[in-house]
Design goal:
20% strand; single chain; six-stranded mixed β-sheet; 14 helices; 450 residues; alpha/beta; 31% helix; eight-stranded mixed β-sheet; Glycosyltransf_2
């Protein structure tokens, strides 16, 4: 097949590259074998600084493609390189690959077919199987597939999933941005431009610039909407290349701290470099819980403010729940109010990693929302809260929520006893409010007693 001059392309493939010409050569050769006609797509490669001499044969590797090779003399990072490529794209659909994404023959056609349906989710993710040096002979021989096992941990598989089949069900797609790496993901160009493209502030640090982009796409389209789809047959192979694993890990964690401060919301509270499926489960569960509380007027802060304020050791309080606008809180009060916009003093968090300084509060009060927490997350919440404040108050109003825990007196008593390993605990009935479990970290209780 040959390219038909003058025909408008339907899909633009975006590839950044830096010091990985051997991988890029194989990736371009795989794009020449696509079942999609070559006059229907273009390939835009941006070399992000570094030594350009190793790329001298790239034109031959991409022979027969609408290949645009752009060279940036100064390195700006992967976000900057992808933005440069996207600016030069002419198609209404962008497919992001990496230089080491060896494509199966149907890859581009499957991405394009997905987006032909106007009701389809805005982002399509494809599969990426890991490879080792023992598999490269197939790519070097221009074979359309590589002989890698599809099960993670056996020399292959998709690093995001723990099984050959991928994650079960489709709820995980409600947090699909957590899985949305730019080695194989497509999105309409108008959506990409609407969110401002990649954040070039990541600079040369490795990791998260792709997830952060697709989080903004998700927020732009509505966090409770199904904005992501997954196609196991739209597949690439991740070619082996040299990695500085320690540097990558350090970069990733620095970037995670940066993004978590930028977005004080539950989506980034559980993001991390491992166990993406577990993080997605948490995000989906807690977003639904927050939505429940807001829609049904549950977890109201107001009654707790009226009944507890005089019992607290000070005015510096973090209130967790909903309805803070009607609660009569003083200016500057901190809240996790899921019905109010997130901002400098209101975070849509569970409380695992809050942007609040240790020992800066007098108390943390959670009105019913703590009942939604997984047990390990509840333990982490009270541990973190105990580092922020003198006291932690878990309020159970007795409301029949769609929560994980429906506290009866015996269960609340047991909760108080098991928390006794780290806290001095007091269980109290408060008229007009409900049952309150007060937790005072042992070291704070000892200081107060002394």
């Amino acid at each position: 097949m040959s390219v038909e001059p003058g025909r408008a392309v339907e899909l633009s493939v975006v590839i950044p590259t830096h010091a990985d010409a051997p991988c890029l050569e194989l990736t371009l050769r795989s794009l020449r074998r696509q079942t999609l006609d070559p006059d229907r797509f273009e390939v835009i490669v941006v070399r992000d600084g570094g030594d350009g001499s190793q790329y001298s044969g790239i034109a031959d590797a991409g022979k027969g493609l609408r290949l645009h090779f752009v060279e940036r003399p100064e390195r700006g990072g992967r976000a900057a390189a992808r933005n440069e490529a996207a600016r030069r794209a002419t198609a209404p659909l962008l497919l992001f690959l990496d230089a080491d994404s060896y494509a199966t023959p149907d890859l581009l056609r499957r991405h394009l077919d997905h987006h032909r349906d106007p009701s389809a989710p805005a982002v399509l993710m494809g599969r990426r199987d890991e490879t080792g040096i023992e598999h490269v002979h197939a790519a070097l021989a221009d074979q359309p597939t590589m002989p890698v096992p599809r099960l993670r941990g056996r020399g292959g598989g998709d690093m995001r999933f723990g099984t050959e089949e991928g994650p079960s069900g489709d709820d995980w797609l409600l947090a699909g941005w957590l899985f949305c790496f730019t080695h194989n993901a497509s999105v309409r160009r108008d959506v990409f431009e609407a969110v401002g493209g990649f954040d070039e502030g990541f600079g040369l640090r490795w990791g998260l610039e792709d997830m952060e982009l697709f989080y903004r796409v998700h927020a732009h389209l509505g966090v409770l909407n199904r904005n992501f789809a997954y196609d196991d047959l739209a597949a690439v192979y991740h070619l082996p290349h040299h990695r500085n694993v320690i540097q990558n890990w350090n970069d990733f964690m620095d970037n995670l701290d940066r993004v978590a401060l930028k977005y004080p919301v539950v989506e980034w509270e559980f993001a991390g470099p491992v166990d993406v499926a577990r993080a997605a489960e948490r995000v989906v569960h807690y977003r639904r819980a927050m939505d429940d509380c807001v829609r049904r007027s549950w977890c109201r802060i107001g009654p707790a403010v009226q009944r507890l304020a005089g019992r607290l050791p000070g005015d510096r309080v973090l209130w967790v729940g909903t309805g803070s606008a009607e609660a009569g809180l003083p200016d500057g009060a901190l809240t996790y109010d899921y019905g109010a916009p997130a901002g400098p003093a209101n975070f849509h968090l569970v409380g695992i990693r809050p942007p609040v300084a240790a020992d800066s509060l007098d108390a943390v009060v959670s009105v019913d929302f703590w009942r939604y927490l997984y047990w390990e997350d509840l333990c982490q919440f009270v541990n973190v809260a105990g580092a922020l404040a003198d006291e932690v108050h878990l309020v159970s109003t007795g409301a029949e929520l769609s929560a994980r825990f429906d506290p009866d007196p015996a269960s609340l008593g047991y909760l108080g006893r098991v928390m006794g390993a780290a806290f001095e605990t007091t269980l109290t009935e408060v008229d007009g409010l409900g049952t309150v479990l007060r937790l005072r970290p042992h070291h704070r209780a000892a200081v107060a007693a002394g």
